[in-house]
Amino acid sequence: MVGNTNILGELKGIVGDEHATSDKHIMYAYSYDMCFVPNKLPQYVAQPANVEEIVEIMKLCNKTKTPVIPVGANTNIGGLCIPKKDNTLLIDLRRLNKIIRIDEETRYAIIEPGVSHAQFAEELYKRGLRFGWPVGPPSGTVTGCAISHGISGMSGRYGLNSQMITSMEVVRPTGDVCRVGSCAIKEDSWHSFLPLPRMDGIFTGWFGTTGIVTKLAVYTPAVPPYVDVVTCSTEEIRDMYKYMLEFGRYEMADDLTAVNWWLSQVPIPYPYKEKPADQHKWNSYAVLYGYTEKELEAKVDAFHTVIKHQQELGSTVQVTEYPEEAKRGRTELPSQIVGSTKNYCKEAGGGISWPGTFTPANKWEEVYNKWEKIYKARNLSPATRITMYRGIHYGMLRAMTPINKQSPEETENAKMAIVEALGAILDAGGIPYKPPVDFNVEINKRADKGYLKLMCDIKDMIDPNGIMNPGQLLIR
Amino acid sequence: MEWDFRNIDDEGELNLKKFFWKCTACGTCRSGYTYGPPPTFRVICPQGNKFGYQGYYGSKGKAALARWMTGCSYLKDEKFEYTPEFLHTLYSCTECGGCQNQCMIDFKPHIIDTIEAMRAKAVQDGKGPLKEHHVLVMSMKNNDNPYTGPRAIRAKWMKKIDNDSKLKDINKESAPVLYYAGCTPAYNAPVRDLALSTVRVFDKIGLNYGALGKNEVCCGSTVLRIGERDQFERVASKNLEQFKMLHDERGVDTIVTSCAGCYRAFVEDYPHSDAYKECMDGIKVMHTSELLYEKFKNGEWEPTKEVKMKVTYHDPCHLGRHLKDWIIDWDGSKQWKGSYLDCIDRGVFEAPRELIKAIPGIEFEEMKRSRNNSFCCGSGGGIKTAFPDWAAENASLRVEEAIDTGAEMIISCCPFCHANLNDGAKVIKSECKTMDLIELLDQAL
After folding, report:
1. Do the Cβ atoms of B85 and A125 come within 8 Å?
2. What CATH architecture applies to the domain A226-435?
3. Does B89 lie at the interface with A, CB-CB under 8 angstroms?
4. Which pLDDT does position A4 carry in this prediction?
5. A47 — contact with chain B (CB < 8 Å)?
6. Interfacial A residues in 58-87 facing B (CB < 8 Å)
7. A435 Cβ partners below 8 Å, 6+ apart?
8. pLDDT in tens, B265-322
9. DSSP states of B177-240 as a string?
10. Which chain B positions have a beta carbon within 8 Å of A74's beta carbon?
11. Are strands A431-432 and B168-169 parallel, antiparallel or unpaired?
């Protein structure tokens, strides 16, 4: 056992003997995630059962100045829940796992933070509803993904998962409980943030540094009965970008994505392998839904119109046949097999991370070409994905980077590729999402001073003792 | 006789370490999930469900324990030490393999080997198993069974066999089929009828078979699961030699057992002996349900009496998802060295179901978790011995799932599941009981 026995004793007094521990082997199991961030053992783990217990824990942590990090399913890919400071308490939220209400008529659901995508999917599909399922493990939590600006198979049309949040309840670092959105005005009404001030921004994208979300309401659109996946390929990223730009204008696709040859291999070749000359460099898929057959037909027609137009402009784009199994992988989410992050990295083994960014689409080509050089120089595959979000004004550019975690040297090599790639994208105006601490160093170097001061002021106001995930944002 | 079980600290290119470091910590192993459609989500890890922390959950937790136990290369200042809490985590896994069924990476085929290798290491270091297991281990040493029953009463159950039974004493007479009853029906009173029912059913279908009586020796499964390899190897070696003798001198070509644990040991664990091929040459191992289903399909018998009952079926882990032939690219000629390619499922899933459905009057309903995604009763891996209350509590969750189907009775094919599920029913004061398939068939013949 490690840690201060008084704090552990008080934690046990709050959550019960069985739900707080300092046992080292358990701390070790919480000391890492999928990414390259080095292990660091927390001092305590507590598993509260309700909001009241979380409030009591926060009061204790303020009194003892104990660092706190909330944890969902511990399936993070950026080290967000790995302690940066000694003496850290992880609050494992797995016991708060209720789906409180699914409002079928107005299509939103209220859930607790321990609810997994798998659990949520089962209940939603029974009601003909869906959510933005990420390409991640079904055991990951809906709340963790959504409040960290996670993306999904619906981001092309609906935006980020955080853009599907409609209301929330939060335990602030001081232990105060607040509601944000319509539920703040009427207790049982969780339909929308608007037209109130968007205070949800204080709790999304802050990576557990401003509070613990204890209830989350999200929009849950209906499952349309008609679906198709249209696919095409190009030899250059420029041609792919132009096709996606034109098709993205229609704002029809739930998911409009392209992956290069290295990423389409699943698993990603590790170490680097040359692309065979007879295979396309870029492959795109667009997931199209329709509530009527005619609606879907019109969307497919639009796709072919765009392809024809691009070909007339001299593009290498061509329609491709996509295996049925691969098509299902794009629509049957959350997926245990096809879509799960683990499959990308199984040749290297042990981990994966990325320079995952939101980047203006017109910068994709410039940045990707730099990335390809960076990755090849480190004998790694430049396994890159580009995705349009909510139309075309911004999109995702990321390189999935497998990590052999058994080898500290290979892990460091992968990390350095990611950090170098990050420099290239920040210079082009891209912003990394779910960033590990190393990324924040680079982000903050470039950040507007007024922006950083505002962040510091908000943080000081909401977390006066600086106990929540200290060291994560590195804003001062 | 030499045995080649893998060790947690083996050297070599494709040692266990190589594989438990392949775990990405994605946590897919935490829950039983299938897309469907419709998608279904279920709790799959009894240990994680009960104890909750990372480290307890699924194969991700076991990979963490194995890394911690063997020295994590990222934490040079931290040194592994055995603590009671570590041993609790290590020994509170039921080894059900539920997590293994979810995992899709190269660690998948090696998950249960890793757990058992950690336990074997704990035993080797004088720290394992748990003190609650000591009685079991001493009984195995002294009595060749885990139930503290003297050898002399091993065959006591046979005194209740009808006088006109065709069961032969295979120590003296030849028969093609050896009925290996196993320790549980011999020593565990609540499931003793299992062996008697087996004999009655075999008699009714006219099987030419025999049993060893007091010369039967434990299969060794219970001690192997808790890391006591020496004891396992001792009894397993005796069995292999005895099986060879029965084949050579008594004409045995089939060993049939009604115990899922014995069956798993014979087909999955005994092949680790260098004498396995020689001793088992010409001998087929079958679970009772397989043998009966084969003969049923061949038209050699059929259930004739009506049994009016609504039932569901519980898949024992040892008769189901544990039985797989893993296809691994050991030499790297297909993908990369050690990559998991596929598995051939040898789980006995259909035979029991088909036999149940063949009984006139039976109404059958599946539980939500079944076959490879079945929820473990909580008895295996040494849990019933060390954590009897939790084992029963976990079984009660399974009984509740059975109740949800409307079943009056749970049917299973494992005496451990049978006993534990009935204990689980007591925990929640349920009338929904468990009986073995063979007992049900006995009623139907």
Report:
1. no
2. 3-Layer(aba) Sandwich (3.40)
3. yes
4. 62
5. yes
6. 73-75
7. A78, A443
8. 999 999 999 999 999 999 999 999 999 999 999 999 999 999 999 999 999 999 999 9
9. EEEE--HHHHH-GGGTHHHHHHHHHHHHTT--EEE-GGG-----HHHHHTT-HHHHHHHHHHHH
10. 25, 27, 54
11. unpaired
User: How far does B235 lie from chain A, in Å, by closest CA?
Assistant: 34
Nearest CA to A93 among A78, A73, A77? A73
Report the gap between the CA of B114 and the closest CA in chain A (Å). Answer: 16
A87 phi and psi angles, rounded to 5 deg: 70, 25
Q: What is the token pair recorded at B364?
A: 């059958």
Cα B203 to its chain centre, rounded Å, is 26
Q: Which amino acid is at A35?
A: C
- With a threshold of 0.90, tell me whether the complex ipTM lies above it: yes
Residue in B56, B104, B339 nearest the CB of A337 = B104
Query: Cβ separation of B27 and A140 shorter than 8 Å?
Result: yes
A357 in Cβ contact with A421 (< 8 Å): no
Give the distance from residue B129's alpha carbon to the nearest chain A alpha carbon, in angstroms: 18
Distance of alpha carbon B259 from its chain centroid, rounded? 8
Beta bridge partners of B43: B31
SS3 label, residue A203: coil
Cβ of B104 within 8 Å of Cβ of A406? The answer is no
Residue ranges of B 41-60 with Cβ closer than 8 A to chain A:
41, 51-56, 60
Which residues of chain A are in CATH 3.30.43.10 domains? 5-92
E-assigned strands of A304-371? 318-319, 350-353, 356-359
Q: Is A271 on the interface with B (CB under 8 A)?
A: no
Phi-psi sector, A32: left (phi>0), alpha (psi -120 to 50), beta? beta
Residue of chain B whose alpha carbon sits nearest to that of A133 = B35
Tell me the three-class secondary structure of B369-384, residue by residue.
CCHHHCCCCCCCCCHH
pLDDT tens-digit series, residues B212-225: 999 999 999 999 99
Asked if A138 and B31 come within 8 Å (Cβ–Cβ), the reply is: yes
Cβ neighbours of B70 in A, within 8 Å: none
B332 touches chain A (CB under 8 A): no
**pLDDT, tens digit, 9 for 90 and up, residues A209-266:** 999 999 999 999 999 999 999 999 999 999 999 999 999 999 999 999 999 999 988 7
Q: Kindly list the structural domains of chain B, giving each domain's residue range(s) and its CATH number in brackets, ordered by start.
A: 1-128 (no CATH), 138-297 (3.40.50)
As a whole number, the mean pLDDT across chain A is 93
Residue A3 reports pLDDT greater than 70: no
Tell me how far apart the alpha carbons of residues A193 and A185 are, in angstroms, rounded to a whole number. 11
Q: Which CATH class is domain A5-92?
A: alpha beta
**All CATH 3.30.465.10 domain ranges in chain A, comma separated:** 99-219
Considering the domain A99-219 in this protein, what is its CATH number?
Answer: 3.30.465.10
Note whether A109 and A143 are within 8 A (CB): no
Evaluate whether A134 touches A350 at the Cβ level (below 8 Å).
no
Cβ distance of B35 and A92 shorter than 8 Å: no
Residue of A nearest to B40 (CA): A122
Chain segment A267-298, per-residue pLDDT in tens: 899 999 999 999 999 999 999 999 999 999 99
Between positions 295 and 334 of A, the ones with CB within 8 A of B are: 332-334
The model's pTM is 0.95
Q: Cis link prior to B37 (omega < 30° from 0)?
A: yes
Q: Do B272 and B309 meet the contact criterion of CB atoms below 8 Å apart?
A: no
pLDDT digits (tens, 9 = 90+) for B154-173: 999 999 999 999 999 999 99
